[in-house]
Design goal:
By secondary structure, the protein is of the alpha/beta class. About 40% of the residues lie in helices and about 20% in strands. It has ten helices and 14 strands. It has helices at about 5-20, 35, 40-55, 65-75, 90-115, 150-160, 180-190, 225-230, 240-250, 265-270, and strands spanning about 25-30, 55-60, 80, 85, 120-125, 130-135, 145-150, 160-165, 170, 175-180, 195-200, 220, 255-260, 280. The radius of gyration is 18 Å and the shape is globular.
Amino acid sequence: MIDKNTRANALIEALPYIQQYSGKIVVIKYGGNAMTSNELKQAVMSDIVMLSLCGIKIVLVHGGGPEINAVLNKVGKEPKFIDGLRYTDKETIEIVQMVLCGKVNKDLVNLLYSHSGKAIGLCGLDNGMLKAKQKSEALGYVGEIISTNPEVIKNALNNGYIPVIATVASGENGEAYNINADTAASAIASEIGAENLILMTDVKGILEDKDDENTLIYNINLSEVPLLKERGIISGGMIPKIDCCVEAVRRGVKKANIIDGRIPHSILIELLTDKGAGTMIT
């Protein structure tokens, strides 16, 4: 049981951060374990609603890999990945669009509503929000973003809604492309002038020693990133995440955070406490 003084001190610690972020935009990329565990999912939704009620404008960008895999398995189609990206043929992009823009997106909107949040479901196809070209022939209908149109996102925010965005983009001939959610979140954050970009992951953040979670690096300057890659501290699947953060910060986002989505309320811990819950790139 938390005593009253501890509760009061937590609120006092949070106050300057609420003031700092009030009226500002925070883009959150949501996926991984936080999306598949019901306990964590409820925690994320309650965090987002609380931040919204505090006057912080939240944009939620989501993936849905496990749900896509489940549907592919049902139709007897084995998921295939190339360099960490989903190979997406004609049938798969139809499934991706159906699952991401339909079930996953609307489930999240409904979950936010159940926590008394005001949310609206969108996808990159809406009003040309995300335009893309084919990333490579080997990947099929996997897209590389070439332009963004944030008008519909800004309209939603200005009317008090939490935009919940599925990462499917449109091509120049009307075809749909599957977009990596980290990449989409970075592009959207840059385009709408976000104060902060938060990528939820399945690790604690950037670790000095990948096998020791006590070696978390709390702050990284852009200038340090090349050396950390050279030393192997940033490696493997963390490289594209860091690259998304670096691109967002270079394009005007004040800071980007990689946080551990396995920790309940990690979003609140990151935004509203002195120590934070992951690695911050500035």
